[in-house]
Specification:
Elements (H helix, E strand, L loop, with lengths): L2 E9 L2 H33 L22 H14 L1 H4 L3 H21 L12 E4 L7 E2 L2 E4 L3 E6 L8 E11 L2 E10 L12 E6 L5 E3 L4 E2 L3 H19 L5 H35 L2 E5 L3 H4 L6 H5 L2 H16 L2 E5 L23 E3 L6 E3 H16 L4 E2 L11 E2 L1 H4 L3
Parallel strand pairs: 8-11, 11-12
Antiparallel strand pairs: 1-5, 1-7, 2-6, 3-4, 4-5, 6-7, 8-9, 9-10, 13-14, 15-16
Helix pairs in contact: 1-4, 2-4, 5-6, 6-9
The structure holds zinc ion.
């Protein structure tokens, strides 16, 4: 299945605006309540008998189950029957809020993020299931809100259905993020002859196994620089003042501009990649956790995750190309020619194999490893010749590529 996310400016009427603010407010209460519940439970387990004080004593029974998502969702359903405020908001939206909290806790464990905090304000909420035929010309139909006008800055993708939407409140108004999924389960396109590995580069935006290195375009970097500047200026302004609002507005407009030009560039680039091969292979990277690294700063702003996970598969699908993800482990350490693994520092720009002396740009080498893994996955043989032109082709079997 393919997903795409588009952003639009929302133009709610007065009544809808009030409704959105009510939802945000109720969601905030639910979030904070659920967080308090988890916090209390955790604190009640923390205090050992020795340090047990009045402060750390809680009235939670020792066998009370941890308020995980399922338990909290159950309590919410019950509470909804008695509290009219809860009743006034779509049940799925509230459940989604609990999911958000749940994710904050799992991110804390897996990504090392901080302990979730109580929210003074909630900026957004999600309708996890959109109605059929919810996309109208210049308007979108939501559960609870009905038809809401949007500024349709771009067409909805063809052959796609809106699956979920997020409504975001910013200083400059309300925005909408629609996640589209392909309406039918799309069968993979057949495997073709020519294969290409695509790697999210350290220095470049992407590198291909064919040796192409693509940097983020200058206009995009310029826009991002301008955005940083505006954000720095915003900090110096008094919150809520006229100048502050003006500044916020400027930033919002620039954000939209960047999102649009970035998307256009991504579509172009994806099409160029599809011109080069029949089979496109990428790494199975979780860009969310990857972004914690210092490495990615530039590429992250360029939306590498969205490019690899949304736009590239979408264009591949449209163009009849085969797209697949391969195991991400050690792609940057492995030699594409002999399979030997050696550690690289981030500052190492070159792949220089101590085993077979193969030399290559670091990112291109990784792209070649990705291509090799893709070839094996689709049952093609890996041709050594592809690594160095002019050499007689030597067929490597799967076993040659396994680490010794
Ligand atoms: Zn080697």
């Amino acid at each position: 299945m393919i997903t795409l996310t588009y952003q639009y400016k929302l133009r709610p009427n007065k009544q809808q605006e009030a409704e959105i603010n009510l939802i945000l407010d109720v969601c905030k209460s639910v979030y904070n309540y659920a967080l308090r519940e988890r916090k209390d439970w955790l604190s009640s387990r923390k205090s050992s008998i020795k340090s047990c004080s009045i402060v750390s004593e809680y009235i939670i029974p020792a066998d009370a189950p941890y308020p995980n998502y399922n338990n909290q969702a159950k309590s919410l359903t019950i509470a909804k029957k008695t509290y009219s405020r809860l009743k006034s908001v779509n049940a799925q939206v509230l459940q989604q809020t609990l999911k958000t909290l749940d994710r904050a806790f799992s991110d804390m464990k897996s990504l090392g993020k901080g302990f979730p905090r109580f929210k003074k304000k909630l900026r957004s909420f999600v309708f996890p299931a959109m109605l059929k035929n919810c996309l109208g010309c210049g308007q979108v139909k939501f559960p609870q809100l009905g038809w809401v006008k949007i500024r349709q800055s771009r067409q909805y993708p063809e052959g796609f259905q809106a699956k979920q939407t997020r409504i975001i409140k910013k200083a400059t108004g309300y925005y909408l993020m629609i996640t589209f999924t392909s309406s039918e389960l799309v069968p993979d396109n057949p495997v073709g002859k020519v294969s290409l590995g695509v790697d999210a580069g350290v220095e470049s935006f992407i590198a291909t196994s064919g040796g192409r290195l693509t940097k983020a375009p200058k206009f995009l970097l310029d826009q991002l620089r301008e955005l940083k500047l505006l954000q720095r200026r915003l900090k110096k302004k008094k919150i809520g003042s006229n100048n502050w609002l003006k500044s916020q507005n400027k930033i919002a407009i620039l954000h939209e501009k960047i999102a649009n030009s970035r998307r256009d560039w991504h579509f172009k680039l994806a099409n160029q990649i599809c011109d080069l091969a029949d089979n496109i292979f990428v790494e199975d990277i979780n860009f969310k956790s990857w972004s914690k690294g210092i490495v990615r700063k530039q590429s992250l702003d360029s939306g590498i995750g969205q490019f690899i996970n949304e736009i590239l598969p979408y264009i591949c699908w449209k163009r009849g190309k085969y797209y697949a993800k391969v195991d991400k482990n050690y792609t940057s350490q492995e030699c594409p020619k002999c399979g030997h693994r050696q550690k690289k520092k981030l500052s190492d720009r070159k792949h220089n194999c101590s085993h077979c002396n193969y030399q290559e740009n670091r990112d291109v080498a990784a792209a070649k490893v990705i291509r090799n893994r893709g070839l094996i996955a689709v049952g093609h043989t890996v041709n050594k010749n592809a690594c160095r032109d002019g050499l007689a082709g030597v067929q490597l079997s799967l076993f040659d590529l396994l680490p010794s």
